[in-house]
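User:
Hi there, any thoughts?
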Amino acid sequence: MARDALVVLPTYNERENLDAVAAAILAASDRVEILVVDDNSPDGTGQLADEIAAREPRLHVLHRERKEGLGRAYLAGFAWALARPYALILEMDADFSHDPRYLPQLLEAARDADLVLGSRYVPGGGTENWGLVRRLVSRGGSLYARTLLGVGVRDLTGGFKCFRRQTLERLELSTVRSEGYSFQIELTYRALNLGLRVVEIPILFVDRRVGKSKMSRRIFAEAATMVVRLRLERGAFLKRAKTAG
């Protein structure tokens, strides 16, 4: 089977997870390769990624000089992917909160969709090992974004996605400003505004096995304010897209 899909895997201090998650991703589908995008992790994640790449031709490594946020890491990974002939580009976390066993389902759904979302909030989806406060914050944030942006997608903040190549090429990645988790909202909202077909498939999101969560109050605040900005700038984005098209 042709290897036509690339999983972009941002890492920062994920040394404890990387070897196992990379093996699980490659075992989940013969179609996929991996790009580890490491932000100069002080725990040696980048070095470990190089060691894995030396023995595994389906894994590649992109080293960045410093940590600049999840969005910047993904954009660097997407640029790397678009410079090569991958038909599908996926994103997921490196901490097993996104289970690699769902990869075949995302790839299959991409046959009829421009963007596939692994969703916690459609029938069959859910979360595991989350406390009440975290569940309320997550659902409340998703409801806030859906309501303000006027979209029907249930899980706007999720980070387990499969893009068609042509989808990423149309999203004006050079103008994306989000750095944290609002990056997920921004890209999905752009796809919806372009009239692209976005579908959700259910996943069970499991809290990370080891390591420390990257969520912070600053990231949460950025997401809240970015939703307002996206709504206000929708017209300008569509005008640029129409001109480019």
The mean pLDDT is 89. The chain has one domain: 5-244.
